[in-house]
# Entry
Amino acid sequence: MALRPVRLHQALSRTVHTITLPDPDGPAVWAVETRTTEDHRARLYRDGQRTSTAEMPATFTVPGGRIEVDAGLYGVTRVHLVTPDGRERRLAPAPGTLEHRRAALTRDRPRTSRAIAVTAVVILLVNLVLATPVWLEMVTSIPEVADRVGTFTSPVLLPGWLLGTLMVAGVAAAVERAVTWRHHRIVDAETLWTSL
# Structure
């Protein structure tokens, strides 16, 4: 099966990353495709033709090493060539992907890119502060947990429209962090709550 270009309507659900590697018959372009909303599989292509498919986390053997692939709820978390000596090289996002568009924004408009990145962190931190008490109330409302540790009532009471807005903003911020390959244990802990 042939690899198709990534269309605009697929930007949030499909990624393709590529790398050119030497081969006895000449350089070959290897591509890894993931479709996070359809299945949890990675597909490997050589010069546009599918060669294999694997469940993620996936490892594909290629000339000069192996390609390791994994994805989370908000996008690809790993797509690297690992050489036999342990060196790693991330594959490049293919044109049309959200990652490629975001990298172009960073290159062409660095100030706008930084402003978007900072805004995403602020949104995730605000959501983390607001979500923690709500999450604790949810967990302690489970009878088995309440019997052991008691219940907790969240002091945070937000109107439904604000909760919805924060959830949408949190998802957008999480996608922003994923496509720019940024991750921090505390900042990105909030992405767990937006997935509930």
